[in-house]
Amino acid sequence: MYKRSRILKAALFLFTFASAPITYAQTTIGSDLNAVTTAVPILTVAPDARSAALGDAGVALSPDANAPFWNPAKLGFVPNDLGVSFSYSPWLRNIVDDMSLSYVSGYKRVSETSALSLSLLYFDLGEIQFIDENRNPTQNFNPKEYSVSVAYGQALSEYLSLGIGARFIRSNIAGNVNVSSTSNYESRPGNTAAVDVGVYYNRDLNQTLNLGLAAAISNIGGKISYTNADQKDFLPTNLKLGTALTYNLDAYNSLTFTVDANKLLVPSPSADRDQSVISGIFSSFGDAEGGFSEELQEINLSGGVEYWYNELFSARAGYFYENPNKGGRQYFSMGLGLRYQKFGLDAAYLIPNEQANPLAQTLRFTIALNLD
Hints:
By secondary structure, the chain is mainly β. The chain contains 6 helices and 16 strands. It is 11% helix and 45% strand.
């Protein structure tokens, strides 16, 4: 069991990593960094080990069972009739030992050029012991967040596909606990829904080169509230642009280079937070107080290199960069992958740029099953 102060510290570190601090609190660390803040930021964290090892890049990678998280359009080109994957990550184990992030996703072809998927993202924040104003223990609570998603991808031609997804989101970070006896606000779980859209282009440039280009917008949905007050917070609506270039060295060896650029399509900290979701999306391209130069700072870059030997063994390395004024997350990543007949196993390891970082030694594991 953990004291509330320790858990809150862990939560702050967590949400710094996940693009935004927890918005239930009246004061956030994002306000000091001028970072763009949202609710449910776990929706932007790479859940699978393959992309995690590539610096959290994945929107234009070759399709697999984790495609719905990155870009539903990739479902139009999935390689198998049926695919399932399960990913798990012990979270912030340098601080607490009962946080975890889990993701399960599966798809089924409905035709030669289309597929339907179902996925679940589940985030367990561990047990919290609440205390009152006099620092007396009141009750225990186990915060959880999850989303259930369906997605569909359709190939329009030999090279181009489109996709759409929809999800239900539930964020229960304080239950119905009244965290302050002096406040008239009652806490409650937040519920909302969102959609994803994406486009994916893939073709062979010649006998040795393959090019993938992709764009996707995820989490376009209603605002979410954690109290009975009128205040509501934006979801992490996220624009992803990416490319992946695969070079087949010979019949057994290949290299893939991939790069993603991400931008949250929500208002900057200095902008009007009461505007609608659609208005916030369009205004997010020009509402930064520092002008165009600050807008560029809101773009996160991620990229990596993936090596495959005979489609049996892979080695991966990547890097993620976020501007210091917008959160400052910067880290290397690495990982390995194995394939044997219908089964796959991937692992990823995060290496932060600085010592004493709570994200140090973060591991992700993915197991997969593919059937023709």
